[in-house]
């Protein structure tokens, strides 16, 4: 990094910090209104009773989020700035919710099968666009936010969004209770889009100086470099294995709403309240776990978060009444907060700055098969065994990953410096 670039970053450090906190907070609020843990499963359940289709929601999300990074990482690394890429790619994250809202409000009488295809197709566009954005956005944040403030930044960003999401959950509960389906979902989608427009404005105001790009490498050369990287960095390889096991366990969270609807026939308004509780826990979790990670370490926070995530699955199995799901979704919110917060930061910490985009790409690629194919397999299994059995199996896998991360993976030196 040149001295002029460092001077620009120092001059705009406070501005960039708060603009991107507000960007992420507005985005988090918007996406909470169509949460993949609560509202989207409700929409799918209203359109089909096939359990395996519930597995398509996390499968689409993770395939879209993770796989494009394999192709974009070398292209992003060759650019002097990350912001232009992000501003173009992220448009595809926002427009699908505008389209979804308009369709559900103006054509509510379409056959359920047609609406289901439209919902999943638009969600796939959102997820793929998120994947095209993710590496550039992550590296943008790593460039403009000082390393020692990563934990506070991610915690405050998602925590503030979670606080807004509490109100969003109450709003969702009211809309779902008072408006007929699917118009209620259409209204939520339009509010989501409006929040994302506000988010985009904050992002566009970010100041990023140009830095020396890495020369573009042919894609096959990039692929050939992945194996040596994993052989060289044993700790990172072990971390990826453990994170994949934890991620597979956390897949169960995507089936909790469907399980509650099936067992207890909870009203739609309660799904909005579940969202509010989850977002409140996510807010507290992001702020609290972010501060804890900066003192205790991100590896330890990831272990703690995995434990909370698996506890949610066990409680869902044991729940005698639907009110237990308020506690369950509180655990989901806290667990997902810590998983995202420390999962991101540990990848940053393992990677040398010059290889950061490659490390992010490798991390996404390693997680993709489990995160994309796993939910579909779990959904198919649930068709034959019910949700209880899959909660048991996923909790076991997640606990194994958590234990191995705690005892078998050394925290990277840069993580200790960040903490």
CA gyration radius, whole angstroms: 20 Å
| SSE string | HHHHHHHHHHHHHHHHHHHHH
Helical segment count: 21
How many domains? The number is 1
Please state the structural category.
mainly alpha
Beta-strand share of residues: under 5%
Largest sheet: none
Shape: globular
Q: How far is the first residue's CA from the last residue's CA?
A: 23 Å
Annotated CATH topology = Growth Hormone, Chain: A
Number of DSSP-assigned strands: 0
- What is the CATH architecture annotation? Up-down Bundle
**What's the assembly state of these chains?**
single chain
Helix percentage: over 70%
What is the name of the CATH superfamily? Answer: MFS general substrate transporter like domains
Report the CATH C-level class.
Mainly Alpha
Residue windows where pLDDT falls under 50 for at least 5 positions:
415-419
Q: If you average the pLDDT, what whole number results?
A: 84
